[in-house]
Amino acid sequence: MAFCLDPEGWGPVSPVYYNFTPCFADAVFPFLLGVGLLVLSPLELRALKNCTAVFSPTTPWFYIKFALLAIIGLCQLVYLASLSTITRSLFDLRIIATLAYIASLGVAGYVQYVEYFRARVPSGIVLFYWFLSVITGFVRFYGQAQRKVWTQNQALFTSFVLGLLATIGELFVSAYFLRPPSQYESLNGEMDSSPEVSANIFSRLTFSYLTKLMKLGYENFLTEEDLPDLPPDSRTDKTREDFDVAWQTEKKTAFPSLPRALFRCFGVTYLIGVCFKLTGDVMAFMQPNLLRRLLVFVNSYNSDNLDVPVPLSGGIVIAMGMFTCSFLQTMTQQQYMARVFSTGMNIKSSLTSCIYRKSMFLSNDSRQAKSTGDIVNLMTVDVQRLQELTQSGQALWSGPFQIILCLYNLHSLLGNSMWAGVCVTLCTISLNAYIARKQRALQKVQMKVKDKRTRLTGEILVSIKSIKLFAWEESFIARLNEIRNNQELANLRKKGVYSAIANFIGSCAPFFVSCSTFALFVWTSGKPLTTDIVFPALTLFNLLSNPLTQIPQVITQFVEATVAATRLRDFLVSSELQPDAVAHLDAATEPGQSAATITNGTFLWDESGTHPPALKNISFDAKLGQLACIVGRVGAGKSALLQGLLGDLYRESGNVTVRGHVAYCSQVPWIMNATVKDNILFGKRFHADFYEKTVRACALTEDFAVLPDGDETIVGEKGISLSGGQKARLALARAVYTRADVYILDDPLSAVDQHVGRHLIDNVLGPQGLLATKTKIMATNAIAVLAQADSITMLRDGAVVETGLYAQVMTRTDSEIYKLIDEFGTQREQEEVVEDVEEKTDPLASNEDDDEELIDYYDGKFGAPLRRASTASFKKPTLIDDVPNRRSKQVKEHSEKGQVKFGVYKEYIKAANLTVVIIFIFLMLASNSMSVGGNVWLKHWSDVNTEYGSNPDTGRYLGIYLFFGVTSAFLTLFYTLVLWIFCTIEAARKLHDRMLRHVLRSPMSFFDTTPLGRVINRFTADVNRVDEVLARVFTNFFTNTFKVLFSIFVISSANPAFILFVVPIAFLYIFYQKFYLRTSRELKRLESVSRSPIYAHFQESLNGVSTVRAYSQIRRFNRINEYHIDFNNKAYYPSMIARRWLAIRLEFLGSTIIFFAALLSILAIASGRLSSGLVGLTMSYAFQITQALSAIVRMTVEVEISTVSVERILEYCKLPCEAPEVIPDSRPPVDWPTEGSVEFHDYSTRYRPGLDLVLKGVNLRIKPREKIGIVGRTGAGKSSLTLALFRMIEPVGGYISIDRVNTSKLGLRDLRQRLAIIPQDSQAFEGSVRENLDPGSRFSDEELWHALQLSHLKDHITSMEGGLYSRVNEGGSNFSVGQRQLMSLARALLTPSKILVLDEATAAVDVETDQIIQETIRKEFKDRTILTIAHRLNTIIDSDRIVVLAAGKIVEFDTPEVLLSNKNSLFYALCKQGGLVE
User: Potential cystine with 911: which of 701, 987, 1128, 1245 (Cβ 3.0-4.6 Å)?
Assistant: First the structure.
């Protein structure tokens, strides 16, 4: 009793009262609190000193807080004085503890004063100090009340009670009444809108800071604006920067490891989670020990040997201990979950950003090895694997730790008999390791096949227009289904079998462990297997089943994540573009100074040199202010030279120098899915004056007049709503507006009409154009522009064959360039327009006043240069189109509201087969029933043993118990096999097939208004969830549901009064469930919708990567990408925290169930109604119910989330389709069309509802075998005419007839397969040359070679390895644009149609090849009707008749001779502008 003179001593438990002794309660508690704060407060004060001090006006709550603190201090002084009269010794530890506590009050007050002016979030240390003061205060108050202290010392009791009340007030005011933000914080935006940042420690522990959002989501449907900001440490720019530092360090090692870099970056947060997990696991294993104490208590209470009954308070304390352990386990478990899920999200965001950044600089070798689909798969699937492992991967150490804890506790219960269980456990782990190896091999195959499917899907969607024109839908569906059904799903079926075996082993293991252990115990120990041994052991076995079940699942995830990490590592270390390929110097400033030079340069397509060199030993020089033109045949290397200047090719030797900033126009214009204006500005500030000049110079003014929203028109994916000429001029306008120093232009005139080309030459490229002072390097097939060139370089087979100034070249008649210009072009003076055509005669001609205004912009060729466009401040992209009444707006991605409709479940069950689903549920119910039966039998066995005090008839009891276990395990195997093989895979096959068919059969208007990334998202993320996640989620949902139902049934059977407690708890449960479901559902939908822009932007960036790099826009595009990722995470993060919010509350209800189950058992024992076996059985099930309750709600949401993917797939399964492919009652004759006559009958059409007509009342009659030329300004409706012929757009009035058959009444396949077309944008697909020419395998090799010979591709294909089976890369990237157009010509030659449409078929080929092709067409198609749209008027000047279109109407239609004889005709004006007539 030294240092404390109380007669009850130190205890800590009083021998008189069921409470702590006064010495322990009044000395230890205050001392630990006081000393703890005194030790920790310096750390808190140091952290506060690092915060910025701000002036914040004091509020009444500030004074109330310190007034309460003063009252607490005063009460403690009175308490101290009163205590001293009792102890009569200054060395009594209660006196010392009180003094320490009083000192800590002063420190607490100082910390609170400092934090008021430096931080808005209350100190966690101080709040916990007040919280523990309240808790220990109640314990002490309970002890004083039991001892009736007020009768001995009223002042002591009164001061203590008043101090306790003031402490409660202090805790309340400190936690919930924060100071308002200061003016400094408000003005500088330091108040983060993330609720987590401003949440106190209790709010963080219980996730209460999310309650506001939960309430908002319960009352209203959440929208994008409702989402709170991410915590600063979780924003992508921060996580990516941290990972980048770790990865750069890792790359310096011999074998870079992605997991090691991730741990270096995110390991601290993860290790904090480890600490919480460790605590939670220990708490979980406290329960069996408490259960054993409870059963010992029950047995002792029922014992006949006791003279004095055991007090019930002992049992009640054990019940409270169970409640406390369960609640602490919940708290620590949820903190652990929050940290690992947050870490997983940070890993995903950082890796996604790094993948994007890496893809911007991939070398050609790496780019060929990784298609767009492959890289998208890295983002969608592989990164997801790592995220999932982060979330559940701690089971790799936690599982063994739990097994060790379990075995240790079993050893204390059963002695050495538990080693039988260890042997079974080791066998189980060995089997799981074998299965894991098999699963790893299957996972590798799965990822490769998934890549193939994603790649082909992407190509189909990119080339959908060509596929429809050629009626190739069925061929490509067959190709995709071969990969999907015969490879991907077949492999998935094997994975399902191994998953079922793993589940079987996991189900068997606990039964075999318990059977072997109990058997050995009975046969070796000689002790009875009583209830106080069996049920703690059974609880331990149940706890053991968790790691044994989790470990195989996590091993599977680990295997998948290892494969993913390897794939990601390989990608992140893959080769990049040569960093020193181009030397970038300051801009040239003096006339005649070189602005771009190549000296003895040899360039390769790839660093490995597997292909012939792209360019061999070339030298090139472009000087300031010059127009340097590059000419040559198709495949000569024109584009390669430009790519060499951009640094896109590998420079093997020589030097490349570029001075100043670069602007680039690719041969295939790269257009963003944005407004016309945004495409022109391209991240630069808007300057109205120069913007208008650029628009006029690039001949876009009249286009703006006809576009639905002018320059605010959204152009769609790849500019799909624009014509080829409009896209080319838009890309040129982007380059002009940038005001760069060096312009690299890849044939920008090929897609525009000849007169428009003339306008661009005069106003942009020529000596009086906007770019007069700039260096312009242009690869071109347009002969007209050569007359304006300062230097001309001719290439052949990747080498320079001739170069020189225009003036020099034109004096050498033996020059090849001279011959080219002499044969195909006209002299410079001939190209001058002799007389102006009056504006009224040519509505298509440019405005002369505008041209003059542009010319006045310069004071001579080397006047003041254009000032470079300044970069605009970053504008965040948004999911919402905030421009009202925009006619061209894209369809916002549809998102359902409210809970997933029953019809979605019905459709999924229908796809999975209702009968099989019923069998699955029946087998699962039977499996759970057998498991419960085994436990009931075990209860009966232990009761018998307890009653007899021995182990009678052990073999029978053990055999029946084993029968229950093995039967349950086999039923688990059967229902898992049924689920995977007959339900999941079958449903996945049907849903994917339906979606694919409906997407491919959708009209072109769907692709015009739907970003490609959105569709890809359905075919990747949503299909992956249906393939692999849905089965797992449904299994977990039904497992936990049956577990809760059986648990309640068992407990209620033993204690019917338990139902009285279950009912109110059930109401609370349902309330929390609904409260959570509404919000969580919408958060998940927002997450799904916000995921699409990530992939859409990524694919768009990859398509235009050369352009983005050339314009030095990488940084801006990186920021856009990171913003999209953050926006997606803004929906994911609160969704994840919402699950923690729910779990805390539901598992608290579960802890309450444990408490009431124990309490009712104790009370029932007093009345003699329960045996110890029944108590053990009810408590073992009560322990299971805690986490199962929250798991049900969590799985309910997961089911809904996963079913949202089904819902999204079904949405695309209901897309409106085009007209039927075949109409049985309206099929044309087999040899139709026999003549080739075409007639438009008052035909009108538009691209989609809501837009203006593109063809208006067209009446046109074309005779059989007639050659018709179609001309008109860009956007006049030329391509629309051909699309109408193929019914790519349907009529709104009139119809088209071919050979007097109304095409509107035919099936689309019947129509399109009978017509031939060489489209404007030629497409090539990954695969072989043969597959590109003939996807349906309808023609022989001889026929294909003949078509290639006629299209002048035979020599090139012969030179390739494999001939007809040579590989064509994704998008035909190993063929030039001209060669891809020749491939389209070969396709047309294979189509035995009487009607051929040439839509600018030779725009991308040189004039010599063009002439040869035209001769081929005249010869090979002489007996066919030909409709030709051409920019080069000389290609259609010999047509039988000419159609001139303007604004969607036919304004002229006659022979060329008649039209040219009329000098007021538009055709004459066009020819004159193009230099064809004088």
Answer: 987
